From TrEMBL:
<dbReference type="GO" id="GO:0005737">
    <property type="term" value="C:cytoplasm"/>
</dbReference>
<dbReference type="InterPro" id="IPR029052">
    <property type="entry name" value="Metallo-depent_PP-like"/>
</dbReference>
<dbReference type="InterPro" id="IPR050126">
    <property type="entry name" value="Ap4A_hydrolase"/>
</dbReference>
<protein>
    <submittedName>
        <fullName>Metallophosphoesterase family protein</fullName>
    </submittedName>
</protein>
<feature type="domain" description="Calcineurin-like phosphoesterase">
    <location>
        <begin position="14"/>
        <end position="197"/>
    </location>
</feature>
<dbReference type="Pfam" id="PF12850">
    <property type="entry name" value="Metallophos_2"/>
</dbReference>
<dbReference type="InterPro" id="IPR024654">
    <property type="entry name" value="Calcineurin-like_PHP_lpxH"/>
</dbReference>
<dbReference type="GO" id="GO:0016791">
    <property type="term" value="F:phosphatase activity"/>
</dbReference>
<dbReference type="InterPro" id="IPR011152">
    <property type="entry name" value="Pesterase_MJ0912"/>
</dbReference>
């Protein structure tokens, strides 16, 4: 675990939370522009930066050029060491092809940058302790969502006394209380998740993130959704050379 140390809050501090970018350059640009216009003081990325999308190198370069704290996600780990046979369903085999392609593009500089991500990051502020992770503090693949039982959450956070716990992985925005803790998931920048009336999942053409506003002893959360032009995303995918491009694009539709 990395500890950022104690931070004295200004009268008001805004922290942008982004997660699950997945190499989507159009969504990332839209969110970063919105963050800049919002006046956020800093940004924390909760992992899954560059895998499973058309622009892994652009995404890494963009984040590396900014002062952004980054958590290690499960696909950040996987893109460093893609393993054949790790995927079980036909959908997963298509994801595997994309991730192996993403991994093949990484150079020494990109691998060094990804290796600098930490699985768990904590900090103490005047507004309370904050814990950042991807899936959970225990595992980047563990799922915390609105249906997680109190017993399960008690086990997950048994060794933490943080007041605010922020993670990603599910690609669904969430705000939930657990004891004295507030659990936050900002959703997904690059691959947001929805289930249609027919029971099938799809990707809406929006980029999700959240902004925490911290004051001494209190905070608020603003969940945001930023729209962008699907034609720009199609162009980025079709010009990228990524495998399974048609399959990847078929999951998107306007709400």
């Amino acid at each position: 675990m990395v500890t950022l140390g104690w931070r004295r809050c200004a009268e008001l501090e805004r922290i942008a939370l982004i997660s699950d970018i997945h190499g989507n350059p159009v969504a990332l640009d839209a969110v970063l522009e919105d963050i800049e216009s919002s006046g956020a003081d800093r940004t924390v990325c909760l992992g899954d930066v560059s895998a499973t999308g058309p622009a892994p190198l652009y995404t890494l370069k963009t984040l590396r050029s900014r002062d952004i704290t980054i958590v290690m996600g499960n696909t950040d780990e996987r893109i460093m060491r893609p393993e054949a046979g790790k995927f079980n369903s036909s959908r997963d085999r298509e994801i595997e092809k994309v991730d192996v392609w993403c991994s093949s593009l990484l150079g020494e500089q990109e691998r060094k940058f990804i290796s600098s991500f930490s699985p768990v990051i904590s900090e103490d502020t005047e507004a309370g302790g904050i814990l950042y992770y991807h899936g959970s503090p225990r595992s980047s693949t563990e799922v915390i969502d609105s249906s997680s039982s109190e017993e399960f959450l008690g086990e997950v956070f048994s060794s933490s006394d943080a007041d605010i716990c922020a993670g990603g992985h599910t690609h669904v925005q969430m705000l939930r209380r657990f004891g004295h803790m507030t659990l936050i998931n900002p959703g997904s920048v690059g691959l947001p998740y929805r289930v249609g009336r027919n029971g099938r999942h799809f990707r809406p053409v929006i980029a999700e993130y959240a902004i925490m506003e911290l004051r001494k002893g209190e905070f608020t959360v603003d969940f945001r959704k930023v729209g962008y032009d699907i034609s720009e995303l199609k162009e980025a995918v079709e010009s990228s050379g990524m495998p399974e491009a048609s399959w990847w694009l078929s999951k998107w539709k306007t709400e």
